[in-house]
Amino acid sequence: MLRRQAVFSLRRCYGTTASLRQAAPSSQASRLDDLRAGILGRTQQPTANTEDADDDVRKFKLPPSSPSFYTARPVFYDQVAQLERAIATANNALRRAQLLPLPAFARASLPPIHPVWQTKEEMTQHFQTKMTLARYRKVTKLLNELNDYHRIANTAGVNDLANKIYSIVSLFESSKKDAFLARGKRKPVVLDVYGRSYTVGKRKTSSARVWMIPVQQQESSSAPLPMTTILVNNIPLNEFFPLPADRERITRPLKVAGILGKYNVFSIVRGGGTTGQSGALAHGIAKGVVAHEPELETLFRRAKLTRRDPRMVERKKTGLAKARKRYTWVKR
Amino acid sequence: MSLPTAALRPWFAASTRCSSRTTSRSVAAAVRCQSTATASSEPRRLETQADWEDFRLQKGKVRTLIDTFGEYGSTQTEETTFHLRDSLHKPPRNATVSALLAAGAHFGHASTRMNPNFMPYAYGTRAGITVIDLDSTLPLLRRAANVTRAVARAGGQILFIGTRPDLKPVVQKAAERLGPRQGYYVGERWLPGTLTNKREFFKDQNLDSVRVTPDLAIILNPVANVNAIREFALENVPTIGIIDSNVDPRLVMYPIPANDENARVAELIAGVLSIAGREGVALRQEDLRNQVFVEDKKARQRPFNGRRGA
């Protein structure tokens, strides 16, 4: 009798199995939305419930809101459970979209990913528990898997799913992600309103500030060879650098690119001697050329023209006459 | 070795490649050419969106075929067919001896390690292993299910403990079945002092407003959680546990003699208990509705000594 009552009441609460399935969200994407909301709203205040147990003391107490309350780290375990559920949902959705399992050749076609997750300290704040290395690794492992699913969905063009996965993944990305990924990369040189590039070249202890501007071509009065001006400290090149070796070094970037008559160069050079100054000027000119014509970047890199020559004068050491020169060895 | 047959049997070309030293140079050269030919017949990388769409369409052909002809074939569909995951997601309401046998619940530990207090639940010995009597397991499981249902009906908090990696999804699912305010789980290590040193563990919550002590604890691997069982005993929390043949059944209040090493057994037992708990939750809702109805009826039947009229 009790059992029949129980089953009857159960059906009334939950409906039949058919209606259960209809009531459940049909698309995986909407489920991912719910999971994201769950991750964001991690601390929930328990709602007041006046109709509770018989015990007078317990009557006015509320049951804990999180199912992992007894782990003493409910926020962490709830978030991990949400992430695991998100992974399962995304996996299911990708399978339906015929994107999983992915054969080797398709996986090789995916672009590389560079995730930058929050640090342990940032995650400690997010999860409200101390992030030990083991916990951090567990979380990043789950995030990497989710990120991989995002990559697959994104590359295949399933944008709706990709966006929803990203909305969960982005909650854990570091705020310093762009800065981290751009580390070691050169700041791009922008041309000013007049079309000039401003670059700095260095060699030994010399530095050269270089401004380059394309030569204005006059059709009617153009000479067979275009003339350009290279001014160094307001002095023409041939006067400032009398040695042909220095001049050769300076014009090398322009010769390699085949643009000898294309740009006017004005530079201010300070520090060092002739070799250093000419090397610094060459470096600055090479960077300026790349700023005006980005297609030449690979060529210049291969020719090592945009490389700042790291060779500096080595210091003298004690017990030695010079940096490397030793005093004459005496037998006795 | 002619060229066409080698092309039809790439495994053949592979084997000759391995032993190319023994064959003549011209044959080896021919084999090498064939292996590059078979390499070019491998699918190209996917570059554009169109490539990816073609790839998905190609992959989905079999699925489309199944979906189209599924209506005309057997009545067994994706929903009705058996899956391995059904033991976790769709456990039965009542366990049977055959289900317990299939899960391997009758395998105990070594007979030399059998606890003498376990004797009433042991069927015998075979191959040096104690075989557990499932005819005694079944009524004890039913009793535990009744306890769970009653506690859930009274609005109690039920805690599932399974501290092994394969038991974690089991306890999570079981707690989920009972709902957010009555089902709880511990899937990783039980921190000693959680109940006996509450102030230390639950600092942030206001302990005067939150009920910390659970009303029932179901432990799937009690041997590894004796700390938890001790705390439950100190806090007067009734316990249900899966007891294997090397364990004293008096460890928990309501022992269920079964194999504690198997995840399938744990899925079955936790499933039965959590379904009973879910029924209890539903019965509670029913009781509350009835209570409201009865109170309303009583209020209407009281003598009308208020103002009359509209």
UniProtKB/TrEMBL annotation, chain A:
<dbReference type="Pfam" id="PF00380">
    <property type="entry name" value="Ribosomal_S9"/>
</dbReference>
<dbReference type="InterPro" id="IPR000754">
    <property type="entry name" value="Ribosomal_uS9"/>
</dbReference>
<dbReference type="GO" id="GO:0005763">
    <property type="term" value="C:mitochondrial small ribosomal subunit"/>
</dbReference>
<protein>
    <recommendedName>
        <fullName>37S ribosomal protein S9, mitochondrial</fullName>
    </recommendedName>
</protein>
<dbReference type="GO" id="GO:0003735">
    <property type="term" value="F:structural constituent of ribosome"/>
</dbReference>
<dbReference type="InterPro" id="IPR020574">
    <property type="entry name" value="Ribosomal_uS9_CS"/>
</dbReference>
<keyword id="KW-0689">Ribosomal protein</keyword>
<comment type="similarity">
    <text>Belongs to the universal ribosomal protein uS9 family.</text>
</comment>
<dbReference type="InterPro" id="IPR020568">
    <property type="entry name" value="Ribosomal_Su5_D2-typ_SF"/>
</dbReference>
<keyword id="KW-0687">Ribonucleoprotein</keyword>
<dbReference type="InterPro" id="IPR014721">
    <property type="entry name" value="Ribsml_uS5_D2-typ_fold_subgr"/>
</dbReference>
<dbReference type="GO" id="GO:0003723">
    <property type="term" value="F:RNA binding"/>
</dbReference>
<feature type="region of interest" description="Disordered">
    <location>
        <begin position="36"/>
        <end position="58"/>
    </location>
</feature>
<dbReference type="GO" id="GO:0006412">
    <property type="term" value="P:translation"/>
</dbReference>
From TrEMBL, chain B:
<keyword id="KW-0687">Ribonucleoprotein</keyword>
<protein>
    <recommendedName>
        <fullName>Ribosomal protein S2</fullName>
    </recommendedName>
</protein>
<dbReference type="Pfam" id="PF00318">
    <property type="entry name" value="Ribosomal_S2"/>
</dbReference>
<dbReference type="InterPro" id="IPR018130">
    <property type="entry name" value="Ribosomal_uS2_CS"/>
</dbReference>
<dbReference type="InterPro" id="IPR023591">
    <property type="entry name" value="Ribosomal_uS2_flav_dom_sf"/>
</dbReference>
<keyword id="KW-0689">Ribosomal protein</keyword>
<dbReference type="GO" id="GO:0003735">
    <property type="term" value="F:structural constituent of ribosome"/>
</dbReference>
<dbReference type="GO" id="GO:0005763">
    <property type="term" value="C:mitochondrial small ribosomal subunit"/>
</dbReference>
<dbReference type="InterPro" id="IPR001865">
    <property type="entry name" value="Ribosomal_uS2"/>
</dbReference>
<dbReference type="InterPro" id="IPR005706">
    <property type="entry name" value="Ribosomal_uS2_bac/mit/plastid"/>
</dbReference>
<dbReference type="GO" id="GO:0006412">
    <property type="term" value="P:translation"/>
</dbReference>
<comment type="similarity">
    <text>Belongs to the universal ribosomal protein uS2 family.</text>
</comment>
